[in-house]
Design a protein that fits this description.
mainly alpha; 2 strands; transmembrane helix
């Protein structure tokens, strides 16, 4: 049986790994969001240069371009995302193993 302190520590590690994974995947989510917004607005979006994209009378082209090109940052954060995901899988496997073979009262 795990102590209360050990449970709190494991819960904190789980939360930290989930947060690390979420932050590491954020550049990909920004690329998807900018592509969807540009597609709905009927704008052209690419990495070469900023194109005009008028939505409700405001030019969102520079913002969408920045969001779209932030996807390159994922090349640096991908290893962190993979490491966090591997850590989560290992911790979950250990917890399931402990739960399956824990002495029952």
């Amino acid at each position: 049986m795990m102590s209360q302190r050990s449970r709190k520590r494991r819960r904190l590690i789980y939360r930290g790994l989930i947060l690390l994974f979420a932050v590491s995947v954020l550049p990909v989510l920004l690329v998807v969001a900018s592509s969807l917004i540009a597609n709905v607005a009927g704008c052209t979006l690419h990495e070469g240069f900023v194109t005009e994209c008028g939505i409700i009378g405001v030019d969102f082209g520079p913002l969408l371009h920045s969001m779209f090109t932030s996807g390159w940052f994922f090349l640096m954060t991908a290893p962190v995302a993979v490491a966090a995901l591997v850590g989560l899988v290992i911790m979950a496997a250990i917890d399931l193993w402990r739960r399956a073979f824990a002495p029952r009262d």
